């Protein structure tokens, strides 16, 4: 797992602020806070169950992974205080940075490319879900909202905060139950996880873990909710910590020559996925 890490994380994002600084005074930060207000109020246990049932049908469209990458060019993430470039730029920046430091882990390169593809939920073909239902940091439902969650104060208006079954540390879960059994807030992470799993990807479990939990900052940044993890989660979290550095800090103005790297990523897609996927 060790690598000669040639990738050096910059200290400031493309706006000139520290990364993930949710308090910096700017118009961007105000829109980000409003995003989290809406997310925290509307993401409830029942809402997530309904979304997973609807989108788990995979009846929206059939297309390849690369076609989805190109679709993502139409998406800008309102929850992100660090980036306003088209999403495919970020995907390739992430993948190429990983590829440089971990040349033998091709599954990790591909994970870098596809980890955000679930953001197509914002597009009309997928129902044009509101931003708060697609992007932003994720967190468990069915148990207490940890105070490490960004803009935690807005959970006061979430209906689940009034349900005694959901307000204890474990809530409806048992300690050590495994994150696989925990209902996470709905968004692009969980959707892309469903896509990969149901389309029978041959990516390793660590890749699926990264896809599903890369926005779960309360876990991998603050160490919250570890009491719900099992042994496999603990092992996979090591890879998520590696991945996160590239996901977060590759958000820069460095451009990637898409056509130059495209053949390599097409070969990885062919290795780990069917030609056409159900979305």
Automatic annotation (TrEMBL):
Pathway terms, separated by semicolons: Polyol metabolism; myo-inositol degradation into D-glucuronate; D-glucuronate from myo-inositol: step 1/1
Provide the residue positions that the database annotates as binding Fe cation: 90, 115-116, 188, 214, 247
Species of provenance: Fraxinus pennsylvanica
- State the compartments where it is located: Cytoplasm
User: Gene Ontology terms, cellular component aspect?
Assistant: cytoplasm
Alphabetically, the GO molecular function entries are: inositol oxygenase activity; iron ion binding
The note on cofactor binding and number reads: Binds 2 iron ions per subunit.
Record's catalysed reaction(s):
myo-inositol + O2 = D-glucuronate + H2O + H(+)
What is this enzyme's EC? Answer: 1.13.99.1
SUPFAM superfamilies, alphabetically? Answer: HD-domain/PDEase-like
Q: What is this protein called?
A: Inositol oxygenase
